[in-house]
Design goal:
The chain is mainly alpha-helical. It has a single domain, classed as Up-down Bundle (Four Helix Bundle (Hemerythrin (Met), subunit A)). It has six helices and no strands. Helix 1 runs antiparallel to helix 2, helix 1 runs antiparallel to helix 4 and helix 2 packs antiparallel against helix 5. The protein is elongated, with a radius of gyration of 18 Å.
Length: 196
């Protein structure tokens, strides 16, 4: 059942990125600092690259069908979570569009971006909570060792572009930036410079 610990770890990584996104938006609201759109685009790129192209397909293609097969009473929640995966992709597109509008329009585009961030973050947090509270316990109770062997193999291949075993080169700078702008527990706080 290694897949369960992988899913929970991936959810923690997601929560760290979502916390970062919220923190950065709050910082814009509280101050008149210049907005670093590169960081925001990097976060959206990460969410698309990892969550929608990697994490969710593993659940949709392997874990969910196995749970539904072994535990027919899980059909409704599994179907709802599959639908939520598609909804999450739509919310991410909305987030990207609102980010582009904010970048183009300047301060007058901020409220739309802020609203899209809030909607996306709340949605993804609730989705992950539902998986962990409702589906994972059913998986633990009903899946066989043969089911777990297949699922564990798929989930062991951790391709998280930031937090995986081999972070992808294009995300190394984003990881550094995020670590230096976000306070603990997810980051290190503002980067120290010689003039600080």
């Amino acid at each position: 059942m290694r897949a369960i610990s992988v899913i929970k770890r991936e959810h923690r990584n997601l929560h760290a990125v979502l916390f970062t996104l919220e923190h950065l938006v709050l910082e814009i609201e509280k101050s008149d600092k210049a907005v670093d759109f590169v960081v925001f685009h990097g976060i959206v790129y990460y969410l698309d690259s990892f969550l929608d192209r990697y994490h969710h397909p593993k659940e949709t293609d392997y874990l969910f069908p196995a749970v539904k097969s072994r535990c027919p009473q899980a059909k409704e929640i599994i179907d709802a979570l599959g639908y939520q995966h598609a909804q999450g992709e739509k919310l991410l597109v909305k987030l990207l569009k609102s980010l582009s509008a904010y970048e183009f329009l300047g301060p007058q585009g901020f409220q739309g971006f802020r609203q899209a961030v809030t909607e996306y973050v709340q949605f993804e947090r609730e989705h992950a909570r539902t998986e962990e509270r409702e589906v994972l316990p059913l998986a633990e109770a009903h899946l066989t060792s043969a089911d777990w062997q297949r699922i564990d193999t798929v989930f062991a291949d951790n391709q998280d572009p930031i937090f995986g075993r081999k972070p992808q080169a294009e995300f190394r700078e984003l990881f550094r930036l995020l670590g230096n702008v976000v306070p603990a527990p997810y980051g290190l706080g503002p980067e120290l410079r010689p003039d600080n």
